[in-house]
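We modelled the chain as a single entity of 148 amino acids. Its sequence is:
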Amino acid sequence: MNLVEKLNNIFTLGTELEQENEISEIGDIFEYSSVEKDEAIEVVNSMLSLAVQDIGSSVRESLLNAVNNALVYQNVGTEVSFDILLPYLSDFSETHLSYVLSFLGFSGDQKYRPLLEKHLIYNNEEIKEAAQEALCEIDFRIKKMKCN
């Protein structure tokens, strides 16, 4: 079964725990295996679409963690569309928001700078740190592209 099929079957499972386990398995595949780039991009985009749906907090956390693994280990951040997350930023818990801010950094896209800069004055230190790290990541990726 490919990752797209695996992801599509997750919400047919009976319990959130089963869903979390399957999503974690996908995250492990991103971390420990080589995945075709097109497949990784498709699965990440699907996971981002699912993460903004009305799902349980722990399932959302599993999705975001799996996306993070794909961005870190499969290096697909510049090819994924994070815009789907933007209308829902205020709906995310602070833990989930820190993931989202980090994702924006992996995009390497300057258009997210103003949004990230707004979070530098957030009341939560974890959010401030995630925003700062994301800004640094954008700068790093832009510098890296100029050097190539």
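As a brief sanity check on the tokenised model: The CA atoms of residues 28 and 66 lie 8 Å apart. The two ends are 37 Å apart (CA to CA).
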